[in-house]
Amino acid sequence: MQKQDRKSPNWLKQVDFLGIHLLPLLAFFTGATTFDWILCAVLYFTRMFFVTAGYHRYFSHRSFKTSRFFQFILAGGAQSSIQKGVLWWAANHRIHHKHSDTPEDPHSANVYGFWYAHIGWIMGPEFKPTRFELIKDFKQPELYWLNKYHFVPALVLAVAVYFTGNMVNGTGIFDWQAGLSTLLIGFFLSTVILYHGTFTINSLMHKIGKKRYRTGDESRNSVILALVTMGEGWHNNHHYYQSTAKQGFYWWEIDATYYIIRMLGALGIVWDIRDVSPKIKESNRLNQEAGVKAKLREMKVQEIEQSEKLSEVED
Asked: What range defines the domain where residue 291 resides?
């Protein structure tokens, strides 16, 4: 398998990405409150939902429908994670599915290694531009604007977090120092954790876990990563049947994003939610192939035994 010649990151152009990772360390000087830590957890899971439901299940796979207004909310909420523009994200994800675990895959850990799949491909030059030709089904000008100014939703959220911290931790909205720890922990630390929670799907979910279906790649399922990513850990399920909004195919496969999508459906905010039929769930399984081979072996043994019995009778 011939790898593509991919260049190393220009570290001078990654100052913002690396700086986001370092900023939470300033909390050692500011301290942190209980509110800061609660907000950190809340923003992690809230934005993880927008990443999984927005970037992934809606914009990349069109697994449900919604209004133009809520489409904008999904895009803005996803981009508050600072994972670039919604059209950029979805286009690259479509490339991943088309070329999964081949040299053309943007982030195959099996081809390019763990670290490249985790963060290297994001920092390298090959995947910086948005492949608009791969995302022609979204032509709304507000999405193009958001994709161009992808930092705006995160900036709005950061400002809101800071002033909220001023009010909760201090004496009022203009208690300028009180919100610094909230910004560092509630926004920046949750962003860093969110980065790596999301990135583990690229770097780990084709290396660890169990395979249920034949998919032509190394995608796997992991209950631990499903909990961390609100359902994205059922990755082998997803690679087998990409168009469904439901990645946890069975009741014991926890898929929090799908549960929320269903609640939004009950409220009429989203509709035409694509599910997965029992027939599809039970097809194309790896254990079916193993079962057929076992049955053939059993028939072969029975044939040999019958042949031996016939020989004994003839003797």
From this structure: 285-315
